[in-house]
Amino acid sequence: MRHSSTVAEACLRAGVHYLDTTGEQHVLTMLRERFTADFAKAGLCLIPSTAYMYSLSEIGARFCLDTPGVDTLDMTEVAEAVPTVASTQTILDAVRFPSYHLKDNELVRYPGVETCEITTPSGRVLKASNWGHVESHLVQS
Q1: How far apart are CA 44 and CA 62, in angstroms?
Q2: Residues 6+ apart with CB under 8 A from 39
Q3: Looking at the chain, which terminus has fewer C-beta neighbours within 10 angstroms, N or C?
Q4: Both ends of the chain: CA-CA distance in Å?
């Protein structure tokens, strides 16, 4: 998260593709706005957000939203792990940037960090928030 811009610039100068696991909204937006045209002009790929960790949920969300009559999906990711130093930095950095959710095919800004309680299928009650990938809201019209 802290180095994606520098790495993307270095990739462009070196004439190599950019692949990264970073998936934070503001990084993806920044990379798209700042580098897409230059990478395309150079015939290079700019591919962030290649991490596997949320792929199954994204596939499941697409399947649900492709079901006739389903137009809204609240999705929460639950992961149990000890974050690395870099992941901790990303978590703390992410709250400094606005985050958005898709509503009626428009990106709508969250008013700030929102928290809620979720209940897992096993009955555990967990705290969730809208930063990063912890809570995603997908809406299809």
Answers
A1: 28
A2: 12, 18, 45, 46
A3: C
A4: 31
- Domain boundaries along the sequence of the chain: 4-47, 55-139
**131: confidence class by pLDDT, cuts 50, 70, 90:** low
Secondary structure of the chain as H, E, C letters: CCCHHHHHHHHHHHCCCEECCCCCHHHHHHHHHHHHHHHHHCCCCEECCCCCCCHHHHHHHHHHHCCCCCCEEEEECCCCCCCCHHHHHHHHHHCCCCCEEEECCEEEECCCCCEEEEECCCCCEEEEECCCCCEEEEECC
Residue type, 25: Q
What are the tens digits of pLDDT across the range 107-121?
Answer: 888 777 777 888 888
